Recover the amino acids of this structure.
């Protein structure tokens, strides 16, 4: 415990309570199906439900969908044969719902997570958890206070290739790891979700979390981060270059852009060779000194909106495993990592001129309203 302060102590104490006191809050019976409620009827929610359909019905069922637009909610329910469509508030009060998947736009994640937790519902929320570090900490504390499971949907962490990478690193296939290098870019700068600051736009908050979390997963917690980049006329990051320094003289280099397509590859360099995976955020291919491996995904029964969207099934499986064990968080995507990612993303954005915390303060002072009624419509373009 030496050297730990603040939230580090908080998380350690929470984990201690779970382990030493066998804390099991609302444990899911191992033979029961996990009943999902879907908050938001956009494209990412569409893919999430398709992904759930590849899992046994005895383990996963979608029992309700909530939408800010009744017509959209009804159409979504009919398309997927979901028995109930309703408002957000009604969803949080539905006793049949075990856990709520939040697939709304970045700027309203905080409000939606808080609504669910206060109503006693467990939550899986699309990344980023919140747009500010302050709100991220608040939400995590609330989940612990309520004794409720909460996980940020960084779906990459649950792909089978992550297990294979770890196996190769443990075997020493590439020697001592020295460097991580990631490029990730898509021509999405004209899409509402990335274009507008009020929606938490820009590449960093749209998909930048993926390369950052990958570097952390390989190298640990960084000692230092520097970031430079360009802003659009709307005041969101269009492109950025990041350097993260880690203990033992290791480092990571990340390139992001919303202006064009990049290779979307990640490299892990060691003293004896390297490992390469692609695509960065939803990897199905891996190259090691021994050759190339392909890890194909299950075939969907409907058309997906996003590349490898069927891979959302892996994070759903993780949620169920955690609930069967009575856990408040996932060991693969713990709250401490969510907080760290929030801190790093805030610092990166701040260094190139984006400060969502200051934006919220200005909005509060002016008592202005963001276009929250568009939150779900814009979320039809949410990146998984």
């Amino acid at each position: 415990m030496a050297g730990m302060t603040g939230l580090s102590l908080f998380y350690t104490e929470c984990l201690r309570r779970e382990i030493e006191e066998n804390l099991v809050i609302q444990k899911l019976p191992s033979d029961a199906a996990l009943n999902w409620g879907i908050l938001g009827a956009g494209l990412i929610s569409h893919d999430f439900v398709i992904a759930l359909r590849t899992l046994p019905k005895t383990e996963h069922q979608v029992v309700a969908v909530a939408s800010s637009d009744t017509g959209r909610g009804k159409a979504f329910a009919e398309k997927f044969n979901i028995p109930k469509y309703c408002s957000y508030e009604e969803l949080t009060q539905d006793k049949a719902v075990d856990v709520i998947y939040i697939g709304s736009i970045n700027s309203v994640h905080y409000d939606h997570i808080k609504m669910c937790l206060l109503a006693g519902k467990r939550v899986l929320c699309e990344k980023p958890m919140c747009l500010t570090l302050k709100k991220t900490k608040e939400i995590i504390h609330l989940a612990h206070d309520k004794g409720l499971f909460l996980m940020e949907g960084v779906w990459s962490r649950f792909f089978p290739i992550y297990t294979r990478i770890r196996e190769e690193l443990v075997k020493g296939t590439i020697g001592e790891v020295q460097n991580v290098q990631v490029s990730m870019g898509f021509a999405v700068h004209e899409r509402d979700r990335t274009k507008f600051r009020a929606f938490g736009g820009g590449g960093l908050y749209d998909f930048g979390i993926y390369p950052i979390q990958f570097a952390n997963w390989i190298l640990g917690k960084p000692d230092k981060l520097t970031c430079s980049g360009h802003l659009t006329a709307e005041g969101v990051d269009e492109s950025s270059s990041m350097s993260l320094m880690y203990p033992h003289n290791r480092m990571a280099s990340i390139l992001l852009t919303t202006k064009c397509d990049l290779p979307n590859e990640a490299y892990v360099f060691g003293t004896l060779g390297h490992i390469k995976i692609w695509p960065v955020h939803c990897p199905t291919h891996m190259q090691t000194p021994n050759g190339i491996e392909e890890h194909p995904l299950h075939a969907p029964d409907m058309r997906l909106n996003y590349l490898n969207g069927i891979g959302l099934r892996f994070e759903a499986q993780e949620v169920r495993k955690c609930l069967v064990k009575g856990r408040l968080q996932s060991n693969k995507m713990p709250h401490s990592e969510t907080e760290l990612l929030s801190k790093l993303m805030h610092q990166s954005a701040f260094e190139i001129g984006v400060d969502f915390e200051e934006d919220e303060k200005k909005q509060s002072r002016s008592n202005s309203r963001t276009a929250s009624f568009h939150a779900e419509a814009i979320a039809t373009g949410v990146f998984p």
Summary: Residues 30 and 110 are 31 Å apart (CA to CA). The two ends are 36 Å apart (CA to CA). The mean pLDDT is 90. The first helix runs from residue 6 to 20.
